[in-house]
Automatic annotation (TrEMBL):
Gene Ontology MF, one: glycosyltransferase activity
Pfam families from the UniProt entry: Exostosin_GT47
Protein name stated in the entry: Exostosin GT47 domain-containing protein
Superkingdom field: Eukaryota
InterPro entries: Exostosin, Exostosin_GT47
Keyword Transmembrane in record: yes
Keyword Cytoplasm in record: no
Region named Disordered: 184-203
PANTHER family, sorted: EXOSTOSIN HEPARAN SULFATE GLYCOSYLTRANSFERASE -RELATED, XYLOGLUCAN GALACTOSYLTRANSFERASE GT11-RELATED
Length: 222
């Protein structure tokens, strides 16, 4: 889909939160005219509850602004990744410090980070910042974002993702690794082969699926 907007932001101000930078982001977005798409999610009739409409905006945007919401992480972050839109974070706790299993450590390859303080102090012009990024860099980052999609969705248990791990697989693998590390610390034993652990887990999961009716999982990890 053709990228109609350089930036987009779906959300509303947080007037009762003095630390929120949403007002500054919205003002800069509105000032940029056609470069930035703002979908106002303030109380009242709006299209923010229409996931199809929101995803279409993200699909038409190169970068999706993701300031903190009611918590550090927003659902919009995962919507933007699903749409292939490069997320822009203003707080390191908004994504990669929380989802250490699901999001790779090479952060700069799939998102842009701007410290909140620079936005509050007016030291950053959002539009000019991303206008300086080349099309080649944007394309490379978007490819990395697309590669993240399987890791943040829950696949239909009836499907077979033989070569891809979904969010459930990633979480189970992370939990097994953590348990194994604790076991080694407590017992001083040798590490169990990861492939053997994975095979055992898959057999157990298949047995659960055989006994219980299929459950369609939510498409978000948050």
């Amino acid at each position: 889909m053709k990228k109609q907007y350089l930036l987009s932001f779906t959300g509303a101000t947080r007037p009762n939160n003095e630390d929120s930078i949403r007002s500054q982001i919205i003002n800069q977005c509105l000032d940029s005219r056609k470069q930035c798409k703002f979908l106002n999610c303030a109380s009242g009739e709006n299209k923010c509850d229409n996931p199809t409409y929101v995803i279409e905006i993200f699909q038409r945007s190169k970068f999706c602004l993701q300031p903190s919401g009611d918590s550090f992480t927003r659902r919009s972050t995962f919507d933007s990744i699903l749409a292939g839109c490069i997320p822009v974070f203003f707080d390191s706790r908004s994504a990669y410090e929380q989802y250490i299993w699901h999001l790779p450590k090479n952060y700069s390859k799939y998102f842009v980070f701007i410290p909140e303080d620079e936005v509050k102090d007016g030291r950053v012009n959002i539009e000019k910042t991303w206008s300086c990024i080349s099309e080649e860099e944007v394309a490379a980052m978007r490819e990395e974002v697309v590669r993240l999609i399987p890791r943040i969705i829950y696949a239909n248990p009836m499907s077979r993702l033989e070569t891809l791990e979904d969010a459930f697989d990633v979480a189970i693998e992370g939990a097994l690794d953590r348990v194994e590390k604790i076991r080694q610390e407590m017992e001083g034993g040798k590490s169990t082969n990861r492939k053997e652990r994975n095979n055992k887990t898959q057999l157990q999961w298949r047995e659960i699926q055989r006994l219980d009716p299929p459950i369609f999982r939510s498409h978000h990890i948050s």
